[in-house]
């Protein structure tokens, strides 16, 4: 058993790394958030997912290169500290920890929303409490057990998406007892393929891009990966390819099965998964119930991965002296238990929102995390450019994975992300994400300044 200098244990295999990354990325952004994106763009959201895939591909290559050279638990936070400045290193890790805590709350809230499909009379907070307890239990076990649980969680997700695509294609082509749906729902609905024009396609990208946010998990898990020089590139290539295929095909099939205006809800909060509603609409017996069970496991998988990520980011902050030292104490099995406890705060917030504002709980938590994640991705790409400048041609030649036309690709990613940030001001529910993030950035800068001053005293 390999132990890192930080006290963590290298027990995650390439097979587990790939599925953990998929588990983090394929979650409520696709299974629940697509309700909002379809409402913004109609069938044109398929183009939006293609645009998001291009940005995610750039991000994945940049992270894989840096993670191979620096396989550490703090990942891009450590890279930013090394190649940009200590302030960036602190703020990136603090921001990532904070927004992942919010994301965990959004995901357990999604679990509660899904359960109302079967038991509409049961309060949401009951399901939130149950899901939270299960996730804490998984994350306090040794990392190899976490990796195995997450592997099977994510595998259920992958199999379900493939089955959904297969069932959808059967309905679309008319194989079996159902008449062929064809492609008429893509163009024959209100407004055609682009009911809100290209403006709607771009506006939807503000939320679609969050569906791809999770590719960075490969870099975070590098600190506990077996043979990172081989496992990280393999896991990154496999994960990104699967994400692109799954997202674009699954959304396209869903929109061909059902008119877009019956999937994208308008107002009143988010009340269920559009994938489940698609099966309800076509009337296949029991299919909606089975799909609902799948999306529950998907939300649990995503929350499970994000709880792991948050814990490791808090652990990294503590090891760097920016958070209480107690957060970096590991158990005999190599798990930072106190960091797990702090990372679970988002589930507490989800319980309160489930009691006080159940219909708005998901978007309140999910939308708040958007600006912070966009900030982190922009910083990662600037870090990557600095990382590449610091390397000699010989070192670059030895990299097991390299981004083609890296300067152009990174510039494309940065410009696209900055444009998305500006667009959030024009999307209902996201207008205040950037203004609410700026005070957080100021507070974190003050905390950083005080921590640096105290360390020098």
Describe the sheet with the most strands.
2 strands, antiparallel
Rg to the nearest angstrom? 21 Å
Which stretches of 5+ consecutive residues score pLDDT under 50? 1-5, 266-271
What is the 3D form? globular
Number of helices: 21
- Distance, first to last CA: 39 Å
Mean pLDDT across all residues, rounded? 78
The secondary-structure class comes to mainly alpha
Helix content: over 70%
Spatial order of the strands forming the largest sheet: 1-2
Subunit organisation of the chains: single chain
Strand content: under 5%
Total strands: 2
Which H/E pattern describes the elements? EEHHHHHHHHHHHHHHHHHHHHH
Describe the fold and architecture.
The protein has helices at residues 14-25, 28-31, 34-41, 45-69, 76-83, 86-115, 124-139, 143-173, 184-187, 197-212, 217-221, 228-257, 260-263, 274-282, 287-319, 337-343, 345-356, 361-390, 393-398, 406-423, 433-456; strands at 2-3, 9-10. Mean pLDDT is 78; it is low at 1-5 and 266-271. A two-stranded antiparallel sheet has the order 1-2. A hairpin with a 5-residue loop joins strand 1 (2-3) and strand 2. By secondary structure, the chain is mainly alpha-helical.
Secondary-structure topology with pairs:
Layout: E1 2-3, E2 9-10, H1 14-25, H2 28-31, H3 34-41, H4 45-69, H5 76-83, H6 86-115, H7 124-139, H8 143-173, H9 184-187, H10 197-212, H11 217-221, H12 228-257, H13 260-263, H14 274-282, H15 287-319, H16 337-343, H17 345-356, H18 361-390, H19 393-398, H20 406-423, H21 433-456
Helix pairs in contact: 1-8, 1-12, 1-15, 3-10, 4-10, 4-12, 4-18, 4-20, 5-6, 5-18, 6-7, 6-15, 6-17, 6-18, 6-21, 7-15, 7-17, 8-12, 8-15, 14-15, 15-16, 18-20, 18-21
